[in-house]
Specification:
By secondary structure, the protein is of the alpha/beta class. Helices cover about 30% and strands about 20% of the residues. It is built from 9 helices and 9 strands. A 7-stranded mixed β-sheet has the order 3-2-1-4-5-9-8, sandwiched between helices. A two-stranded antiparallel ribbon has the order 6-7. Helix 2 crosses helix 5. The chain is globular and about 45 Å long.
Length: about 260
């Protein structure tokens, strides 16, 4: 539910039941964009550093608001004994369930794995078999993580908190819910569309909250023991000014609701 002026402004108002994952993949990933390949490389290298010397496949990972995007999950694959794709929109849930079926995921995701497997930890993994073994899909809202169970030792959230609502309180709540689902020291990657005014998928418009590097940094810093933000000056469509990728580790504090 990631990547326009729109009429709705809150998450509950958006037409998620009409989201078209095939159109979304065709528009954004079927022909890999250099910015996405760059993001994949940055995540790959960061997670590799974080897990250096750690037993492979020992983490419990989560991709929050997975949508029709498999590369965040692939980036976590070598490190996870279990990996949850949490997604709210029914069409995206169905899409993701097809991707983890025994037939294997769509060849559209092969170029992203080709970038990942340039590092030995990834090259040692047979991705389609591993996805079928460790990944499961669950329908749920980002806000379902409000309780902060803190059980995940690795996490990603791509174009979610900023791409579901125009309301600032929902953006900040979304970031808080994601971060409070992670255990202390957990590495994470979170991506945001910079200064997005909303986006269209097929025949339907979806809302966004306009963020910049400062907004993202201020929203994440209370939760992080380390944080780096990459301002990627790549536009993939009209209505935004680039992408922001945040990489870091969760601190040990529990943030207030």
């Amino acid at each position: 539910m990631e990547r326009g002026r729109v009429t709705m402004d809150r998450n509950a108002d958006a037409p998620w039941s009409k989201f078209d994952p095939e159109v979304y993949v065709d528009n954004n990933y079927r022909t890999p964009l250099e910015v996405d390949l760059l993001i994949v490389r940055l995540m790959r290298d960061y997670f590799t550093r974080c897990f250096e010397g750690v037993l492979p496949r020992s983490a419990r990972g989560i991709d929050v608001g997975a949508g029709a995007n498999l590369y965040p999950a692939l980036s976590m694959l070598p490190w996870c004994e279990k990996l949850l794709l949490l997604e709210y929109a029914h069409p995206n849930v169905e899409y993701l369930e097809k991707q983890i079926a025994p037939a294997g995921y769509d060849i559209a995701w092969d170029p992203f794995w080709d970038e990942l497997r340039k590092v030995p930890a990834y090259a040692a993994v047979e991705p389609r078999g591993r996805v079928g073994e460790v990944v499961r899909v669950e329908r749920g809202n980002l806000f379902d993580l409000e309780g902060g169970d803190r059980r995940w030792s690795l996490g990603t959230m791509f174009f979610v908190a900023d791409s579901m609502s125009e309301a600032p309180e929902e953006f900040h709540r979304g970031v808080r819910c994601f971060m409070n689902a992670l255990g202390g020291g957990a590495p994470f990657a979170a991506a945001f569309m910079k200064e997005s005014v909303g986006y269209r998928v097929g025949e339907h418009d979806y809302p966004a909250y306009r963020v910049n590097e400062e907004t993202v940094r201020l929203s994440l810093e209370p939760f992080t023991a380390e944080l780096e933000i990459h301002d990627l000056h790549h536009s993939v469509r009209p209505g935004h000014e680039g992408m922001l990728l945040a990489l870091g580790r969760r601190n040990s504090a529990i943030a207030a609701p």
